[in-house]
Specification:
4-stranded antiparallel β-sheet, elongated
Amino acid sequence: MRYLENEKRKEQLIQIVYAFGGSLLFALGVNLIIVPMGLYNGGFMGTAQLIRTFIVSGLHVPVPAGMDLSGIIYFIINIPLFYMGLKVMGKEFALKTLITVTVQSILLVVVPVSTAPIIDDYLTACIIGGIIAGTGTGLVLRGRTSGGGQDIIGLCLSKKYPNASVGKINILMNILVYGVCLFLFNIEIVVYSLIYATVLALAIDRVHIQNINMSVMIFTKKTGISKAIMEQTGRGVTNWDGEGAYTNKTSYILFVLISKYEVAQIKRIVRSIDPNAFMIFTEGCSVDGNFEKRL
């Protein structure tokens, strides 16, 4: 029992590190590389940037040098989405998202916008900025929370529609923002912003492992593992009786299909019953049939 509690605390700590570290990476990528080049995010962050541009350049509201209002605006327009996350994903997700969005919004305000571009080549800035910001967003999602905006919408849709992913939703949400940009800015800004958004979406889906399925084969000489897996994860388990070719002793072979998120949980369950169990994890298997997608 103590082993399981320690492992659970360890996993929670890892999730916190993912959420805070990912938020910092996102803020660094946006404020140090993307904003100084005059480029725009897609989705709700891009909407916040457009509103900021209108407030600062259109209404001429004075803002301290190096400070970006996008973080504050982003938090405000996320408020209705917290309710969606609460209804679809549950109270824990909504609370963690609220905390993460708050931290991310503060970081976007606190991290100073570079007065001169760190990378002055548009294409290079799009690629590097997209990788950094996308990795940050992916880490936030791996921390079982979200950075708000289209991430909440993407996760909610992913729960209902198995083929949906946050990266795909991200691309679709960008069309509206960049459509507005076409009327406000020159075509070069829009094209490079689209390149950045595409790299960002690809990086998110590489880091966020919601779509990676895993098949697990467990070899053990103890009983009770399959029951524990079904009770604690809700996953179905297939059992075979086997025999060691060298020892001629009876062993049990268990097969279960999970998402990559559940690997640590499966290991904890198995190790708590049989520390000597042998496990084989196969990543990226295709699934057709009644398999519940977990987020």
